[in-house]
Specification:
heterodimer; A: about 180 residues; mainly alpha; Rna Polymerase Sigma Factor, Chain: A; Arc Repressor Mutant, subunit A; 2 domains; B: about 350 residues; alpha+beta; 13-stranded mixed β-sheet; 13 helices; 13 strands
Chain lengths: ~180, ~350
């Protein structure tokens, strides 16, 4: 998945080649779902947002000045679509059931809740990196391509994110 | 997070928590959901791109991400910084302070305590013959008080006016005398002008003043407002006749300067200096008076009893001759310049005996 390949696929898509556009979408689909999920915190809504973002990107394709930067461009579109997702479409998350804090299962549930809370506390740019990294075991190279950042920068963001998560969990008395 | 095990465990937790198995992208399904967009791709974007209704958030995003918006924002920040560093009319550069700013700031205060010194010169020496301390209290709702002290802190005269009752009191602790009277109703409105803001209006609000400085006063680069004809303004403000004034305290040429803190717009020092012609209160000698009010405290809590002081039992009442009425007596009390005269009189029994103020 190189920039040159994106460039070729974009040019082909502009010349009435739906298959090339399909390939572009397939390449970035999972990454975009992860980006949207990091904002919406709902997998199904994230998929909806990603498909809508692809439609937006399709309309913007002829105006794309640098086809090799299709990845970061569509990620930005996806972020905006996710942020604009109407609140009424946000699905109600089921609250965790009450349980005795001493039980091992409950302890595990509590840890997951705290972890989810820790992720919510993260700034968007850090949460996005965590989601991309752990959502689909994405490599730094792939992440760099979709986010338009260097691998070193992403590594730094990931470290900071983990540090904050660990600190949050410790504050809630849950060892990572 | 220092241990490698912790990092590994956190990685494992995150992977477990976030791991998804997303469905692969299905172009056909997407094309069914967005048929117009799919047709665009199939036609090689030959058809015009559908013009969707622009949403408010999109306009907002366009503005917020626009290069021009960023430039305008940066320019606004620079302008704010420059206006702070080089402020204009309403800035903090001393020269930019206008008298109206001072008046506005003073009007917003409800009380003040002023302390300073009054130096009396009976010769041309630079060393004052008498060095006196002073304290003035102003309260918009309660009244006015003026106390004069000797160098060693002994009270020699205290004059006070109680605004609610219209009672004027003058105490002479040295002689154990007092004078108390009710100010006539028609004169009370004039008396109200002794409050700081009204007092300043008389003296400076006509616009006939000279701006001086900036000059370092009490460690502050202060701006000064100087007026040359202090006596005319003061007596004019109270509506006193020259004859009455000259009888008690006959001022010659005098000037006053108020130094203002440019930041607070409030006075920090008032300097007044002038000639006093031979009159009753100087013991009929020439005198030069220099007053410096160098400590101004605004919005202080003042005890209302200070404006209607209790008269000690052993004090005798003073009566004024019929030629003098409460109006002139108030002038004496309000001006607060009589203390040096009493000191002068004390030094000369002969002159004191000529005073028309007699014990009852």
């Amino acid at each position: 998945m190189t920039n040159a390949e994106d460039d070729i696929l974009v040019r082909q898509a502009l010349q009435a080649d739906p298959e090339s556009f399909g390939q572009l979408c397939t390449r970035y689909y999972h990454s975009l779902v992860a980006v949207a999920d990091s904002i919406l915190l709902d997998h199904h809504l994230a998929e909806d947002a990603t498909q809508e973002a692809l439609a937006h990107a399709c309309r913007q394709l002829p105006k794309l000045k640098k086809p090799e930067l299709f990845g970061p461009g569509i990620a930005a579109i996806c972020r905006n679509v996710a942020k604009d997702m109407p609140r009424d479409r946000m699905r109600q998350r089921e609250p965790a059931g009450d349980c005795e804090p001493q039980g091992p299962d409950c302890r595990e549930n509590g840890r997951n809740e705290v972890l989810a809370e820790a992720l919510q506390q993260l700034p968007q740019h850090l949460r996005e990196v965590v989601f991309l990294r752990f959502y689909n075991e994405m490599s730094y190279q792939q992440m760099a391509k979709i986010l338009g950042a260097t691998q070193e920068a992403l590594d730094g963001r990931l470290r900071r994110a983990k540090k904050r998560i660990a600190a949050f969990m410790k504050a809630k008395r849950y060892e990572p | 997070m220092k241990r490698k095990e912790d990092i590994d465990r956190l990685d494992e937790m995150l992977a477990k928590h976030l791991q998804r198995e997303p469905a692969p992208f299905d172009f056909e399904q997407w094309a069914r959901r967005f048929p117009e967009d799919a047709k665009l791709v199939q036609s090689g974007f030959a058809r015009p791109v559908p013009n969707r209704k622009t949403q408010l958030v999109q306009i907002g995003r366009c503005i917020m991400t626009s290069r021009y918006t960023k430039l305008v924002g940066a320019a606004a920040v620079v302008l704010m910084a420059l206006s702070f560093l080089f402020p204009g009319r309403n800035g903090i550069v001393p020269e930019s302070v206008a008298w109206a700013d001072v008046q506005k700031a003073v009007e917003q205060t409800h009380s003040a305590r002023v302390t300073g010194t009054r130096n009396c010169f009976f010769s041309k020496d630079e060393t004052p013959t008498y060095k006196l301390g002073l304290e003035k209290l102003f309260s918009l709702s309660q009244g006015y008080a003026d106390r004069t002290f000797t160098e060693d802190g002994r009270l020699i005269i205290e004059s006070a006016y109680d605004l609610p009752t219209g009672t004027m009191t003058v105490l002479f602790p040295t002689y154990k005398r007092y004078y108390r009277t009710q100010v006539p109703q028609e004169f009370r409105e004039k008396v109200k002008q002794v409050t700081p803001d009204e007092f300043f209006k008389w003296l400076w609000a006509s616009g006939d003043y000279r701006k001086v400085g900036p000059k370092e006063v009490q460690g502050i680069q202060a701006i000064g407002f100087e007026i040359p004809d202090i006596v005319e303004r003061f007596t004019g403000g109270l509506g006193l006749t020259a004859k009455l004034v000259d009888f008690f305290l006959s001022f010659g040429q005098g000037k006053a300067c108020m130094w203002v803190n440019p930041k607070t717009r409030l006075p920090i020092q008032v300097e007044a200096e002038g000639e006093v012609k031979p009159c009753l209160l100087t013991g009929y000698r020439d005198m030069r008076l220099r007053e410096i009010d160098d400590r101004w405290e605004f919005d202080v809590e003042l005890d209302g009893a200070q404006f209607l002081p209790a008269i000690p039992e052993d004090y005798q009442e003073l009566t004024l001759p019929a030629a003098l009425n409460a109006r002139s007596a108030f002038y004496v009390a309000g001006a607060g310049f009589i203390a040096p005269a009493f000191l002068a009189a004390r030094r000369s029994r002969r002159r004191r005996n000529r005073m028309p103020v007699a014990a009852s």
